[in-house]
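Milestone 3.1: sequence recovery, worked example.
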């Protein structure tokens, strides 16, 4: 009971510090033994789970371009934290720092706790993108958020990155430059794919069948169209089974 009381008091202190004074009276009657309903239908438990992170500040406003994926604007999306999914959120993905940022209902920007996030989704240009968090281990060095194009026995990932090119604009201003890398996870090992040949070499145990599949379906594999690789991987898995 003492621990529960301490947690409740710390939660209220956090809310009091973070939230505007004109919003706080909505949760004034807190000592009821029940979860308090917040704006948007979220209770205090949701607030603790979802808004676990730290306040975000833009440290790169002097760099030309931006550090975000797709757009600097917030996108509709969802986050799955330790198996629990939160929908109808405003999110943006900082690929320079590999961090997910949420715009709360109060206009507070929070960099979410990456260690707690399983998946998140973004909606951009009428398309949904799914991302999952990977942890590096003794076999695989790839870590952080990856865009998941296929995820069955084999997996197909895209890792987005941005770097800062120093004085790249008129020899006066730094510039954000974006790149991406393709990875395939097969039999527990993650391989970076740098070319069509490297991709097909991973599937060489069914080389003839795949060649016929590509030709009959007029599929052209390229790094610029990783979705074509997802089609081939799906076909390959059927052959393996």
């Amino acid at each position: 009971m003492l621990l529960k009381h301490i947690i409740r008091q710390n939660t209220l202190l956090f809310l009091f510090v973070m939230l505007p004074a004109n919003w706080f009276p909505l949760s004034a009657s807190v000592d009821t033994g029940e979860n308090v309903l917040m704006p948007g239908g979220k209770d205090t438990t949701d607030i603790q789970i979802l808004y676990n992170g730290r306040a975000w500040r833009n440290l790169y406003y002097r760099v030309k371009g931006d550090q975000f994926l797709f757009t600097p604007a917030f996108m509709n999306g969802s986050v799955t934290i330790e198996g629990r999914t939160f929908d109808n959120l405003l999110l943006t993905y900082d690929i320079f720092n590999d961090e997910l940022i949420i715009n709360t209902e109060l206009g507070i920007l929070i960099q979410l706790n990456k260690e707690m996030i399983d998946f998140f989704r973004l909606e951009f240009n009428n398309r949904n993108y799914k991302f999952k968090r990977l942890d590096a281990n003794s076999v695989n060095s790839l870590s952080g958020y990856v865009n998941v194009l296929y995820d069955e026995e084999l997996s197909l990932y895209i890792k987005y990155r941005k770097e800062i090119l120093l004085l790249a604009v008129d020899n006066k201003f730094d510039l954000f430059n974006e790149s991406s890398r393709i990875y395939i996870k097969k039999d527990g090992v993650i391989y970076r794919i740098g070319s069509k040949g490297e991709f097909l070499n991973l599937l060489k145990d069914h080389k003839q069948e795949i060649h016929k599949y590509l030709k009959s379906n007029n599929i052209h594999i390229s790094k610029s169209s990783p979705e074509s690789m997802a089609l081939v991987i799906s076909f390959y898995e059927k052959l393996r089974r």
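Residues 2-18 form the longest helix (17 residues). The chain is about 25% helix and 35% strand.
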